[in-house]
């Protein structure tokens, strides 16, 4: 197995809702484990998410959890997720869904380096960057 890098997002009681939203954006298979399951090692609300993993057909993996009691949580200031590639249709659709109900900080448009780029904060306070790579001549 090769090494991979996956974003891991912490929430305070919204992990299930957020991951179901991300599944609606990206598709794929969502696995949810709660603090109430026998594998849980932390206390906390038994219905909250101890670990969630979304694996998409595009090869993305996104992980998340609800923050256990007693652990600090600083929403949105410690993570940005970057989506990039040359599949403009898919990336524009992701952008539309992620920015809906959120805040656009940089509109998705052609930049001086030639790519289309945009940045937003989704309705859960997570920062996203989308870069559509310019076709090479």
Automatic annotation (TrEMBL):
Signal peptide: none annotated. Residues 7-130 form the Glyoxalase/fosfomycin resistance/dioxygenase domain. InterPro entries: Glyas_Bleomycin-R_OHBP_Dase (IPR029068), Glyas_Fos-R_dOase_dom (IPR004360), PhnB-like (IPR028973). It comes from the Bacteria. CDD domains: PhnB_like (cd06588). This is VOC family protein. Gene3D superfamilies: 2,3-Dihydroxybiphenyl 1,2-Dioxygenase, domain 1.
